[in-house]
Amino acid sequence: MLDIQSTAAAAPQVIRRDAYREPDWLVPETALDFRLDSLQTRVKARLTVVRHGDHDRPLRLDGDSLTPVAVSVDGRAVTDWTMEDGQLVIALSGVDHVIETEVEIAPELNTQLMGLYASGGLLCTQCEAEGFRRITFFPDRPDVLSRYTVRMDADKARYPVLLANGDPIASGDLPDGRHWAEWHDPFPKPCYLFALVAGDLEANRDSFVTMTGRKVDLGIWVRAADLPKTDHAMAALKLSMAWDEAMYGREYDLDVFNIVAVADFNFGAMENKGLNVFNSRYILADPDTATDMDYDAIAGVVAHEYFHNWSGNRVTCRDWFQLSLKEGFTVFRDQQFSGDQGSKAVKRIEDVRTLRASQFPEDSGPLAHPIRPESYMEISNFYTATIYNKGAEIVRMIHTILGPEKFRAATDLYFARHDGEAATCEDFVKAMEDGGGVDLSQFRLWYSQAGTPRVKAALSHDGATARLKLEQTVPATPGQPEKQPMLLPLKVRLFGAQSEAPLCDERIVMLSAANDEIVIEGIEERPILSINRGFSAPVVLESDRGAADLAFLSAHDDDPFARYEAMQQLMVDTLVRAVAEGMADHGPVIEAVRGTLTDKALDASFIAEAVLLPSEAFIGDQMLVVDPDAINRARDSLRAELGVKLESAWRGAYDSAQANRFEYSPAAKGARRLKSVALGYLAASGAKDAADLAYAQFAGADNMTDRQGALGVLVNGTSGNRAKAIEAFYDRYQDNALVLDKWFTSQALSTRADVMDEVLALSSHPDFTLANPNRVRALAGAFSVNQRGFHGADGRGYAFLADIIIALDKLNPQTAAKLVPPLGRWRRFDERRAEKMRAALQRIVDAPGLSKDVFEQASKSLG
Ligand code: PHE
Ligand code: ZN
């Protein structure tokens, strides 16, 4: 039973979207003065405040863990201020005033990594969403835009480089070995985009000439030893700048653009105006330490943060309920960019796989929320796959509905209309309507309704007429029992079973009702349905297509995504049947995989994606009650048979990629990817030489993709090579934190029965620490998505995760809260597991002194 009283007392305040009110006071100018020190930094702030609207309310400045040392109004020290819930409240009589405050903070003791903190000897800031209030008193809300001037001084030997937003204005030396610098950012911005960095850094410098001929100085700042690992990020930055000009007409607007890499960071990276701060894993790369996936992620995140300069900074969010306005749009933009750099089809497959792995479970669980939420306790909990990835799908659907030209006209209108403003999702949709000349009334439901729509499609054929019956339902989600039908753009095409040719052009069916029937005339032979091509709508599709039709599409569809999808569906159907009935006919999957694997017209990277079995988690998502053991058995058995029956094809694929020297090109990447998939199948087949092949690849690799790929195979096995590889990897990379993360992750993802013991042992390894978010995610985060290990029937996986969450919450609530969702899946598991998962959640909720971050996630997960 829940103890209503104590829970109510502990329950943090709920913030509601419909409670939005314009700010009482605006702050057109802000001058900050930092006397930097790792233990005692003094911050002076000088705010010009202007009363907004006709009211007599006092000025309220947000603060978190701040105590005012001094407060003055219009140059006179005052003492008649009060503190209310961390806010500094000052009664003011006039229309505008100058407010000065002074506080002291201790970056070195800031383990939350929000506000001003220390990381590896440097000082840096993270302010989104509400970190600025941990630096100085300020109206910490995104609709208060201010022009910033920042002066800082620091010990010159420890912090020779001093960076902030905007352009450098002046600098100089001071007595006592100190120095100072002043920066000015001419663009008004919300305080969440403020940033400052001080440290012993070196820059990879370059420049970019914009479309109007302005030269921008670029710098990527890292520790001197890491400089050789910054070329890939720099190349990606320049490509992004050119791409945003060509594709969206967006030009960069300052004379300098700086990026700093830091080792301790709660998220991926941050788009602070003119001074992006990155988790070092999204900057540093060389062939010996970064995988192809790392290279791609770096380019994608560099592009993402750069694109925010327009979609996020020039046009920002009115309030945090509008977060997807900048994140969904910017993810869509970075996905487009990455698709343009290599294979569009493979990029789309990867993005859909990510959506299904991280967003679909969210949408069907206790934490489901619309891309524009109605309420929150802690906004950090809403940096979710729904806001980001589903948000991107919604922008993608608008792009599909409008077509590329009108979409460009609509984004031009959006940027022109709202430049310099704090906008809403509604503003965005309105601009899409006005610029695209369409009515998006029903489409707006995507912003308010949570849950993944399900579409049933049934095709019938009679004479020369094909009839496509469509039926949509949107499942109930927490707080939303009833749903209305949504507008779903479904790309459809029919193929001839005999002719193996398309029977009609691709068309976009706009499904708007719960039920509809589409009639297609002139279909003379039995048609096979290709639907939701390119994943044109983010839905779960159910169709009555059998194994033969899916196999046909996997070989003949002209849309590469649809080919991939048909193969996945065939595999899922087979595995779900095998789980339900204890066995299934593997034949159609084996023949379809053989066909794809030996199709000379396909490129290696596509083949590698298409022949991969769906993950255990994804198979589980298809079932009412997830049975992890049965899923493992079914998947292992299909994998083994694929390995055995197609052994020579796997060997062929493996050998043909074997001789390549490292090169970072789409073709070379594809070859490496297929090689690692082939190695996995050879190992699954039980081939005697698989472990030796893997070890030889491990030891002889000239790049991290091959080395980690081999390690990933070896950790699952029992051969003596396993321990040898784990040890050799550690010895070689123990001084490289990012690679050591891979070492932890590879072991946490092991499919062995004893993975829990290994993970427990690793959690007391001297290199494991709760202080570094990357390390926590590398071990505990990775393990929590290892369906076998985490869902071990004894429940030790759940207890382990709860222990980590409770311990980490004391240091870093944001990162702790992100570990909660896997426990919230309890409704999907058998009663014995569900009981243990609930017990783990309850233990978290009951932990004394719990943060509101973790409280919100754990209490909602108990639901
Ligand atoms: N705004 C960042 C991005 O998506 C994410 C982020 C959020 C980073 C909060 C840090 C803190 O680009
Ligand atoms: Zn973003």
Automatic annotation (TrEMBL):
Residues 548-862 form the Peptidase M1 alanyl aminopeptidase C-terminal domain. It catalyses: Release of an N-terminal amino acid, Xaa-|-Yaa- from a peptide, amide or arylamide. Xaa is preferably Ala, but may be most amino acids including Pro (slow action). When a terminal hydrophobic residue is followed by a prolyl residue, the two may be released as an intact Xaa-Pro dipeptide. Keywords: Aminopeptidase, Hydrolase, Metal-binding, Metalloprotease, Protease, Zinc. InterPro entries: Aminopeptidase_N-like_N, Aminopeptidase_N-like_N_sf, PepN_Ig-like_sf, Peptidase_M1, Peptidase_M1_dom, Peptidase_M1_pepN, Peptidase_M1_pepN_C, Peptidase_M1_pepN_C_sf. CDD domains: M1_APN (cd09600). Signal peptide: none annotated. It is an enzyme of class 3 (hydrolase). Residues 236-443 form the Peptidase M1 membrane alanine aminopeptidase domain. Pfam families: DUF3458, DUF3458_C, Peptidase_M1, Peptidase_M1_N. NCBIfam families: pepN_proteo. Belongs to the peptidase M1 family. This is Aminopeptidase N. It comes from Sphingobium boeckii.
